[in-house]
Amino acid sequence: MSWTEERIATLTKMWEGGSTASQIADTLGGVSRNAVIGKAHRLGLKARPSPVKAKEEKKAPPPKKKAPAAAPPVAASPAAADAPAERKPAPSRPSAEPAPAAAPARPAPIPQPETESATDGEASAPSAAAPASAGHPLLEKREDLPKIVSYGPGGFLRQGPGDQQAPIPPAPPRRLVPAKPSAEIAEKTSLLDLNDRVCRWPMGHPGEPDFHFCGERVNPGFPYCVEHCGRAYQAQLPRGARRPPPPLPFGGPRVR
DNA sequence: CCCTGATTCGC
DNA sequence: GCGAATCAGG
């Protein structure tokens, strides 16, 4: 699979939307979780809550260097060892950029404590999801929560009721009631419940209130359970491989 | 063990 | 540029 504009757009939206790399990889299809992460970093968008990222010390950098199978540590003649095997001072900061250029003795001016704008500007979210829920009494409390965005298998944005702008409400005569999709699909497998081990065969149609996924244990090596594998791959048989019953002439082959 | 993102490095 | 392999924390 190649990174087309469309796939990159989906990746970017989902990444900024808070989806995990695995979910993005599943949605995109054809790429691994690592591929998604690698691409995301190459795109310049990163800095997301990482479980491993909670370490930022300037102490002795542990020589975490990968030595696959080469570079036998044979200490040959020391005279030839003129190469200063020093660790390259590359304190890879995640999002900060103090840029300690060549002026260590000169006290730098007061560094502006940038909040989180960070990075090189271009990496900032192009579509900073503005909290359109301001003003809504039922949604105000969600403002401090991480925005959760879900995407359909094709990468389309699935907006929850709270995300709808409701630009011109016709005239809601009745009072608003809190959406309770959980009542119908509480036991169903939602998009966010999908992973590599549950069948992702869609049940119903996206947008319908009870749309969900099969959720059965997958047929190992396939994205669907055994039952739906039959349907999925039968449906995807190439045209040439399908053998529609040859239309026999009326009355069958002529026999004389 | 599972998950997560970060990083490295051969291709 | 890409992504598997690897690392490392939760």
UniProtKB/TrEMBL annotation:
InterPro entries: GcrA (IPR011681). Residues 68-83, 93-105, 123-134 have a biased composition (Low complexity). Residues 40-177 are annotated as: Disordered. This is GcrA cell cycle regulator. It comes from Aurantiacibacter arachoides. The lineage of its organism: Bacteria, Pseudomonadati, Pseudomonadota, Alphaproteobacteria, Sphingomonadales.
